[in-house]
Amino acid sequence: IIRAKRRETHCFDWRWDTKLKTREEQKEHCLSFFFAKELYKHPSLLTGDSTPSYLLDSYRVIPRIKKVFYHQRHWNKISFIVMLRNPTKRVKSHYEMVTSLDGTEAQIKTRGTEWLNKTIEDVIELDFMNMKNCGLIPYWDIDSKTVNMDIFHSFVGSEEEDDAFISYLKQFVPMNTGSHSILVRGLYELQLRQWMKVFDEKQFLVLKLEDMCVGVQHTMNKVWKHLSLPPFKIEDEEAKNTRTYKNELQQDTKDMLDRFYKPHNERLSLVLSGEEWSNNSW
Predict the structure, then answer these.
(1) In this structure, is the dihedral angle defined by the CA atoms of residues 209, 249, 125 and 147, taken in order, positive or negative?
(2) How many Cα atoms sit within 13 Å of 231 on the Cβ side?
(3) What pLDDT, on the 0 to 100 scale, is given for residue 245?
(4) Residue 72 burial (C-beta neighbours within 10 Å; 0-12, 13-18, 19+)
């Protein structure tokens, strides 16, 4: 495996060059983020892009992948690895990351400034309103902060939900900032569904971050198998990119998020296979 030139290339979203009109120009631009010459010389090499925002922004990213890799035989060779975590904890982590002033100037810039003067409760409320205004969560009662399960079951998985999701992406997913979509990013089944409509489910390996805490090697063995690579011993299993929080989520906020995500997590468990999903404790 050979890494890309940067960990998160964003070549299909933030760094997509709209000035390039031909397919070949766009392909060459995307390949510039990888060691293309080495890959051509050594066909057995694999490479990858670890841009997290691709999962959310399927509306833009999938057509661009299809445009650059225009032969279907290329689509079938793409392997997707998706790492998910408890969505309520993801909300807290997301807020702390983009409001942190630690890091390089470039890192701070890409996090955005939109949330710097807002509490996490303010940001959560804003995304609830954005979803409501797009018609994405008709089952969520803003006042009682509860899910109407009858509406949920009739709406989720429908074309209406997909249309509302695209409307949300068009209106509320800007480029060049990470300060957006604090709640929508935790709707994992909805996001995965868009990708699995285009690519075969067998191309996806969906993992839980919590399992990495139990055993990195066990999780990585699944990755090697998914990529058709031989087993490899991980020498360093220490957690990376971690941060500590000054304050935890307020209990009522946590309980409210757990209520919101619970039926979505249950749908995710039905879609995905594997013991870790059938026994999902989120």
Answers:
(1) positive
(2) 6
(3) 78
(4) exposed
Cα three-residue angle 279-53-120, rounded to 5 degrees: 75
Place of tokens 């429908």: 158
Interval 39-57 mean pLDDT: 94
> What's the rounded Cα separation, in Å, for the pair 98 and 133?
24
> What residues are paired with 208 via a beta bridge?
84
The predicted model gives 13-25 an average pLDDT of: 93
Rg (the chain; Cα; Å): 19
* Long-range contacts of 164-167, Cβ-Cβ distance < 8 Å, separation of 24 or more: 164/134, 164/135, 164/136, 165/134, 165/136, 165/190, 165/194, 166/59, 167/134, 167/135, 167/136
Kindly report each contact of residues 248-251 with a partner whose C-beta sits within 8 Å and lies 24 or more positions away, as own/partner: 248/92, 249/88, 249/91, 249/92, 249/120, 250/121
- Provide the token pair at 203: 């191309």
Alpha-helical runs (H) found in 69-197:
72-75, 87-99, 105-111, 120-133, 149-155, 159-172, 188-196
Grade residue 71 by pLDDT with cuts at 50, 70 and 90: low
Q: Is the dihedral of CA 147, 151, 154, 160 positive or negative?
A: negative
Q: What is the pLDDT of residue 182?
A: 98
Cα–Cα distance measured from residue 178 to residue 79, given in angstroms and rounded to the nearest whole number: 25
Mean pLDDT, the chain, integer: 93
210: which 2 tokens? 């919590």
Name the band, by pLDDT with cuts 50, 70 and 90, for residue 166. Answer: very high
Please state which of the ranges 55-64, 167-176, 239-248 shows the lowest mean pLDDT: 239-248
Answer whether residue 74 shows pLDDT above 80.
no
